[in-house]
């Protein structure tokens, strides 16, 4: 009976690990208004979210009041490294935009849109 319990536990844990989305991990943003950040991207239920975990400026790392704040949320995986139907917060102007992302290897193109106009950044995988 112990053997069966161990097998079932291993299968359940293995299935959970296999279900991790490839975009999950740490991503470095581009510089915006003199600052950049490390974003911790993870699953939020069936969707993808990102939280600011570290912040940097020209002098190096600093403790910003935005650390711990959600910057990306409600991203729905669409397959092929694409995510859509999400939101992104831009700290430099404190505005929220409709957002989409496209992952390619260790690069993540993140776009924020107002109407048909989208501006974006290319984030680089840290971990």
TrEMBL record:
InterPro entries: DUF2147. It holds the Pfam family DUF2147. Residues 1-20 form the signal peptide. Keywords: Signal. It comes from the Bacteria. Residues 25-125 form the DUF2147 domain. This is DUF2147 domain-containing protein.
